[in-house]
């Protein structure tokens, strides 16, 4: 989702319990689903555990994966913090009274190997560009660099960040350990947004309204 800026901090939480469970995952667990790595070249150095995920990248009716139950208790306070943040936003509050509650359309654990990198890329399909991309570092290191829109940061364990995924973003893990993030794509039904060079100021975006810019090569700059 595009917003004014590259990063937006949502809060801080103790994620030690979630980290402990994530560290119990086996190599077989991490290798079981390689859809993200095969589909997106930028993520070839990563491994992921889908908790809520659909391979068609739908924007509603998400599928809860079997692994979700294992982490459900630890995810609850993170979802609550994200929900409360967007409930407090004026636009989000107005929209929810009309079209219902916001929700996570995707949730996954993503691991980046020591010395690994995620190439600069920009999210382009409809659901990815119309959801709020949330990152929560679960295991990290001072030598992990996250870059969005040319602005580099080290995101610390337990911080909750929204990143502007309509701008070029990349990661470099220069550390000797693997990096694990929880990634959530959060949807506010009917939320207005701007896509690439086109804006829809009076009506909600939809796949039909945004079809010409779903795969636009240029970053969205209308809120820059």
The percent range for helix content is 25-40%
Order of helices and strands: EHHHEHHEEHEEEEEEEEH
Radius of gyration: 17 Å
Give a short account of the largest sheet.
Answer: 6 strands, antiparallel
Q: What is the mean pLDDT?
A: 83
Task: Report on this structure.
This protein is α+β, with helices and mostly antiparallel strands and 224 residues long. It is built from seven helices and twelve strands. The strands form three sheets. The chain has a six-stranded antiparallel beta sheet with strand order 1-8-5-10-3-2. It has a four-stranded antiparallel beta sheet with strand order 4-9-6-7, with no helix packed on it.
Which secondary structure elements does this structure contain, and how are they paired or packed?
Elements: E1 7-12, H1 16-23, H2 27-31, H3 35-39, E2 46-52, H4 68-88, H5 90-99, E3 103-112, E4 117-121, H6 126-129, E5 132-139, E6 144-148, E7 151-153, E8 159-163, E9 169-173, E10 179-187, E11 194-195, E12 198-199, H7 207-210
Antiparallel strand pairs: 1-8, 2-3, 3-10, 4-9, 5-8, 5-10, 6-7, 6-9, 11-12
Keywords:
224 residues, single chain, 6-stranded antiparallel beta sheet, 12 strands, 7 helices, alpha+beta, 4-stranded antiparallel beta sheet
Quick recap of the structure?
The chain has helices at residues 16-23, 27-31, 35-39, 68-88, 90-99, 126-129, 207-210, and strands spanning 7-12, 46-52, 103-112, 117-121, 132-139, 144-148, 151-153, 159-163, 169-173, 179-187, 194-195, 198-199. It is an alpha+beta fold. Strand 6 and strand 7 form a beta hairpin.
């Amino acid at each position: 989702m595009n917003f004014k800026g590259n990063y937006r901090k949502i809060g801080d939480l103790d994620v030690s319990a979630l980290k402990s469970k994530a560290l119990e995952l086996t190599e077989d667990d991490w290798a079981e689903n390689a859809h993200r790595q095969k589909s997106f070249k930028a993520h070839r150095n990563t491994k992921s555990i889908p908790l809520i995920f659909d391979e068609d990248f739908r924007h509603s009716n998400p599928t809860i994966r079997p692994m979700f139950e294992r982490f459900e208790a630890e995810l609850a306070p993170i979802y609550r913090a994200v929900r409360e943040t967007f409930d407090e936003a004026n636009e989000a509050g107005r929209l929810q009274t009309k079209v219902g509650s916001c929700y996570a359309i995707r949730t996954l654990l993503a691991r980046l190997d020591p010395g690994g990198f995620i190439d600069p890329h920009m999210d382009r399909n409809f659901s990815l560009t119309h959801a709020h991309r949330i990152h929560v570092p679960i295991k990290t290191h001072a030598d992990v660099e996250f870059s969005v829109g040319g602005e580099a940061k080290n995101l610390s364990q337990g911080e909750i960040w929204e990143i502007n995924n309509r701008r070029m973003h990349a990661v470099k893990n220069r550390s000797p350990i693997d990096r694990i993030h929880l990634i959530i794509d959060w949807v506010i039904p009917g939320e207005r947004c701007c896509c690439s060079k086109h804006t829809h100021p009076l009506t909600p975006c939809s796949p039909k309204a945004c079809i010409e810019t779903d795969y636009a090569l240029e970053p969205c700059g209308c809120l820059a």
